[in-house]
Amino acid sequence: MTKRQRLGVNIDHVATIRNTRGGIFPDPVRAALLAETAGADGITAHLREDRRHIRDEDIEALVAALTIPLNFEMASTSEMQEIALKFCPHAICIVPEKREERTTEGGLDVVNDQSRLSDFIKPLLDVGCRVSLFVEPDERQLEASAEVGANVVEFHTGAYCDYHAKGSNKSALEELTRISQCSTFAHKLGLEVHAGHGITFENVSPIASIPEVLELNIGHFLIGESIFTGLDTAIHKMRRLMLDAQL
Ligand code: PXP
């Protein structure tokens, strides 16, 4: 790998805790700035349709405060497109979104939504945003992602992480192999490769060792771990594991 793998820190769940009390603490922007100081290469924030964690004013405050890139996660709705065009974040990661889900439960079906997605992302590309599509490691989805003009694909690592946590080593390895082979395929198609969802200290190394994976986006585990050790220590440890995996 020629480039150092980047770590994007997702601060959604700082906002989740804040929203349980309806006040202003803890402040997700403060977490983002701490993450920046601790060596995060980017901050990810998902403005969901139901605003269950990040809110519009958080995006505005993040855009104003950050000096590292913001990766704005959103569904492909016209409301979100308008917000993205207003703030022009460095990157936009398009994810599927269902109201009843607890978190993003799978990748986009780019194959069956190709022409709509193509029209949807064009204005975002035109204003200079890097557009990423959150997909399952599936060659057909990658071909479709390249065709719609995306710059990046982010692989959903949730299945790999779930198998790993359950000790289903054979299934975890199969999923990892799929991610690794699809990373090579995506790279050949000219797509930059990112990965994320469910990543922890225990499962990060095999994903971080895939040479084409240029960025990991990690949220829930890091924010949870920071309760015990502080965000700075949690980020440093994750960064160390990522670097060691690439040796
Ligand atoms: N990448 C994407 C596209 C996501 O939707 C999420 C979850 O919001 C993450 C990364 C981070 O996942 P986690 O919070 O499980 O680390």
Quick rundown:
This protein is α/β, with parallel strands linked by helices and 247 residues long. It contains eleven helices and eight strands.
What does this structure look like?
The chain has eleven helices and eight strands. It has 247 residues and is an alpha/beta fold. It has one domain: Aldolase class I (TIM Barrel). Strands 1-2-3-4-5-6-7-8 form an eight-stranded parallel beta barrel, surrounded by seven helices. Strand 7, helix 9 and strand 8 form a beta-alpha-beta unit. Helix 2 runs parallel beside helix 3, helix 5 packs across helix 6 and helix 10 crosses helix 11. Pyridoxine-5'-phosphate binds next to strand 8 and helix 10.
Q: Which whole number gives the mean pLDDT?
A: 96
One letter per element, helices H and strands E, the order comes to EHHEHEHEHEHEHHEHEHH
Q: Which architecture would the CATH scheme give at its second level?
A: Alpha-Beta Barrel
Q: CATH fold name, please?
A: TIM Barrel
- Which stretches of 5+ consecutive residues score pLDDT under 50? none
**SS elements, strand count:** 8
Tally of helical segments: 11
Percent of residues in beta strands? 15-25%
**Helical fraction:** 40-55%
N-C termini distance: 10 Å
Regarding CATH, which class? Alpha Beta
Characterize the main sheet.
Answer: 8 strands, parallel, barrel
Q: Please compute the radius of gyration using only Cα atoms.
A: 17 Å
- The class by helix and strand makeup works out as alpha/beta
- The strand line-up of the biggest sheet is 1-2-3-4-5-6-7-8
